[in-house]
Design goal:
Layout: E1 3-7, H1 16-29, E2 34-38, H2 44-48, H3 60-65, H4 70-73, E3 75-76, E4 82-85, H5 91-97, H6 107-113, E5 121-125, H7 132-140, E6 143-149, H8 158-171, E7 177-184, H9 191-204, H10 217-221, H11 229-232, H12 237-251
Parallel strand pairs: 1-5, 1-6, 2-4, 2-5, 6-7
Antiparallel strand pairs: 3-4
Helix pairs in contact: 1-12, 6-7
The structure holds adenosine-5'-triphosphate and magnesium ion (MG).
Length: 254
Amino acid sequence: MAQIIAIANQKGGVGKTTTAVNLAASLAAAEKRTLLVDLDPQANATSGVGVDAHGLQHTVYHALLGTESAESVRQETALDQLHLLPANPDLIGAEVELISALARESKLKSALKEVVEDYDYILIDCPPSLGLLTINALTASDAVLIPLQCEYYAMEGLSQLVNTIRLIQQELNPDLAIRGILLTMFDSRNNLSHQVSEEIRQHFAAQVFQTIIPRNVRLSEAPSHGLPALLYDISSSGAAAYLALARELIRTEH
Ligand code: ATP
Ligand code: MG
């Protein structure tokens, strides 16, 4: 049975998609059967693993609304052990269409039920909001991984996210755990990066992953080639960091 992890932070541009794509690829490279779920209408995780969202008839949108099974929507990728539930901009509509649906918060959970046995890990890339899509991700998940960018205001909005997680725990998903805070875009030559990462570690202690993701231009180039960093440039510091994160995640599994 897969461990389901939502990668969430309503703050934009903090490294959610980069983490979802590269952690998923790294888990797959470690022979873990992995499903990447793109739950963002921007569809960056979809294009990031080389799938052309425009050519798709069925996407995660149909799985959410229950008109297609997750099994029939999923796609293969360049990595044997990595599958994708793709998104396209149609997903914007789901946020509104789900409002009147019965059990609207658990649509993704229901959709994933039929594939959960096929994987070791399911990673969900969330959009930069705390709307119904992110709520669906948190309701479907065992844990949430929160990327934080090493810059001023990194923790801005974090209390709002933690409050949302508490509400989901109370109302919809009592077993939801915070699986960790991940420091991203760390620039070792920049004092601010060091200050921010120390502050976050003081504040959240053991909840912060040991692995830190460095700022690395290969990580920002790889998506335009439709490749995770480990297939684009395995020798890059970015690829190495996400492989280390995958090892840390596997090692600290209960
Ligand atoms: P959104 O909130 O819009 O979904 P996001 O949280 O998913 O954004 P990403 O898309 O992963 O964030 O990253 C934002 C930008 O920063 C992208 O252009 C990405 O390529 C770049 N980026 C992410 N992580 C790194 C890194 N470690 N080093 C260099 N560039 C990075
Ligand atoms: Mg994103």
